[in-house]
Amino acid sequence: MPIPVILDCDPGHDDAMAILLAVANPAIDLLAVSTVAGNQTVAKTALNARRMLSLAGATGVPVAAGCDRPLTGPLEIGDYVHGESGLDGPAFGEPDVPLDPRHGVELIHDTLAAADEPVTIVAIGPLTNIATLFRRHPGDRDRIREIVIMGGSTERGNHTPYAEFNIVTDPEAAAEVLESGVPTTWVGLNVSHQALVTTDVLDRIAALGTPLARVCVELLTFFGSSYHQAWGFEAPPLHDPITLAYLIDPQVMTYARVGLRIELDGAYTRGATVADLHGRMDWEPNANVGLILDRDRFWDLMIGAIERLGAPE
User: Fold this and answer.
1) CB atoms < 10 A from the CB of 257, how many?
2) Which domain range does residue 260 map to?
3) N or C: which end of the chain has fewer CB within 10 A?
4) For residues 18 and 242, is the Cβ–Cβ distance under 8 A?
């Protein structure tokens, strides 16, 4: 049976590819998409989600804009990676998917209430919407099977030396989600940096020869140029789709169950995810933390999704 999923995101180039994978793979039943401020403002991330769902032909999936700022503190957007639109690179027309009038948090709540079974939330942006959901509707925690999160790192960060962008954008939200009692699996930079969009990957996508494949190449080419400029990467890491690939095929990622904390107070480490991989602290294991990616399995799933969506009916 397909896994019922709510996708909470902030598109963003890698979020865009995650949307394609969620729509295309029959193992996922995409119930709704909520967006949050992160890679760009929430208005732009909602527009970008609608653009990608339109490209994927998923016109029946509701999209709603959620929280427009972190729980505390000012918003810092990731336009230095994703550009002015949040999806710079291709030229997009008007999306076919409408914007749902509900707040994104209420869309999540209503979708959970209507579901026949517990739902998996895939959260690939800052965790503001999910923390707000638990504040407004604490009973919704019982309706969630698991939250699979793209965030954090067992090693270094990217937005700051030790903090990954999604977590440092709203560390308080990340801490509240971690401490909510809902099972969580964390896909950090240490995993996603194993999913580099190398030339061979771009060639495989381009060889599909479909309009969607061409859009994906344009997206990933812009993304790659931004990553090279910001961090010197020869090929950019495709972070977000790993969360869905793991749900589709758990053998894609090896993880460990460890004690995890979110650093809230460090002058230089705020937003860092502190994973006790070697059991040095007296912490009860409270999260699954990703370690190793099967790169070939991952790219077969991702490229297969682009091929499936671009194939003639």
Assistant:
1) 11
2) 3-310
3) C
4) no
∠42-157-152 over CA atoms, to 5°? Answer: 65
* Pick from 87, 94, 125, 48: nearest CA to 221: 87
Q: Which segments of 70-196 does DSSP mark as H helices, in order? A: 79-82, 104-114, 128-136, 165-169, 171-178, 189-192
Residues 163-172: tens digit of each pLDDT: 999 999 999 9
Residues labelled as active-site residues? 239
CA atoms within 13 A of residue 24's CA, in its CB half-sphere: 25
CATH code of the domain covering residue 178: 3.90.245.10
Q: How many structural domains are present in the chain? A: 1
Dihedral angle over CA of 14, 113, 127, 184, nearest 10: -90
Q: What's the pTM?
A: 0.97
Backbone angles phi, psi at 237, to 5 degrees: -85, 135
Residue reference for tokens 């990703």: 290
Containing H/E element for 8?
strand 3-9
For 9-44, write each residue's pLDDT tens digit. 999 999 999 999 999 999 999 999 999 999 999 999
Tokens for 222? 């812009």
Q: Where are the alpha helices (DSSP H) in the chain?
A: 13-24, 42-56, 79-82, 104-114, 128-136, 165-169, 171-178, 189-192, 199-206, 211-231, 241-248, 295-310
Whether residue 118 contacts residue 143, with contact meaning beta carbons closer than 8 Å, is answered with: yes
